[in-house]
Task: structure prediction
Amino acid sequence: MSLQVGLNIVEGVWPLPQTFISSTERYTLNPQAFYFGYRRESAAQEGCSVLDAAFKRYFSLIFPDCSDKLQFSEDKPFTVEIDVGSQDCESYPNEVSSERYNLSVSAGQAYLKAKTVWGALRGLETFSQLVYQDEMGSYFVNKTDIKDFPRFRYRGILLDTSRHYLPVQAILKTLDAMAYSKFNVFHWHIVDDPSFPYQSRTFPDLSSKGAFHPMTHIYTQSDVRRVISYARMRGIRVLPEFDSPGHTKSWGKGQLDLLTPCYRGGTPSGTFGPVNPALPSTYWFMTSLFKEVSSLFPDTYIHLGGDEVDFSCWRSNPYIRTFMQKMGFGVDFPKLEAFYIEKIVNITSALNKTSVVWQEVFDNYKQRSSLSIVEVWKHGCYLCEVRRVVKAGLRVILASPWYLDQPGPTYDWARYYNVWPLAFTGTEEQKRLVLGGEVCMWGEYVDAANLSPRLWPRASAAAERLWSDGKQTSSVEKALPRLLDFRCKLLRRGIQAEPLNVGHCKHEYQGV
Result:
């Protein structure tokens, strides 16, 4: 890779492309003589909803001080020509969607070639970051050749909307920032113990009784569709999580007999524990709920949770113990959890969904052949955990090094940058089972007031690790100037990204 940076030339693109050759030869851009268009032989033509919307969006991002209503100019026009190999404009991105693109910038034009519209979106983002202004406010772009593709196909951000409700607008803002960093999966941890904000049509009491407020702190079906549509236009998948059997206290408020009654001294204590795995009604309810969820969320993945199940309530309940004896489980409560998870996996598999589970399920589940994807989250030797999972032949999403919900100094971005998901001893086949990773933003101490500054630009460090070639991005010192530049781009685009060190941006954040 050759990256030449001269006076008034941007530090580069974040995340770093796989091959990036840039020279000091530069071309002036006039917003009044700048056009996006389709190459004649492109499979996508006028009317491709994803790209047509992207052209308008990126014109405003490239020329933030200009109206999107172009006026006539006598200057020679500069055209960004798009050549897309397949017509998938009305589909959704999925786990095998190609994001590869080639971008060439020369005098009078940029040529962007991609196999899919999702790759074209990544190329448009890259082009937008190549444009810069001089002190007089004139716009320039340098002669550039880029061949790019992601290192990992799963690059996610988890938001927790149960512990603190996040307004839809805050989620949409996060999706914008994700697109700027080339994240491609929004993992929506939509419900948990504190609240159940998802408004179910089949079981309306779940939110009317389980949300913080039944009117103001819920996500309607329309809200969910809006998020999914907004994400699709940015090439981002939406992966819903309905975590059970633990983390379900809010579920029990609107669904009687779902949770396990806890006992003390042989009598009910009035408190409740995890989902009751011994009742047939549990699986009827789950079948109905996941049928609705599967019809609303188009992605083929669904996260079933399965983490941090407290066995003490199950242990206290005489009916649970009797059920376990009948099933031959003895007093093996991890086996009871595995029994429940297998039922839920079978329910979602019948709905043509691929299940994702937290790593406790892998630890407790002996019939691993029915599992598909394990998310590693426990702290410690994360590479040891990844290696354990792939040796069993299962796919992995790595999360444990990228928990950003706890406050910390912004300069610890290097800690998230220096994560190497494939640095374990294993075969190439095993390493191909590592799908990628995700940044987790849990909601105990995070709401809309501090979400963006806590995420950005630290999450962008993980984004480069998951997108870019590891050898080219092994130096924190070389990455810092580019991340500083990218943080300033985020500010100008309205993202409240925290400063990395002492200094300033030419365009400080002015929004709210």
About this structure: The first helix runs from residue 49 to 62. The first strand starts at residue 2 and ends at 3. DSSP finds 17 helices and 18 strands in the chain. The domain at 154-474 is CATH 3.20.20.80 (TIM Barrel).
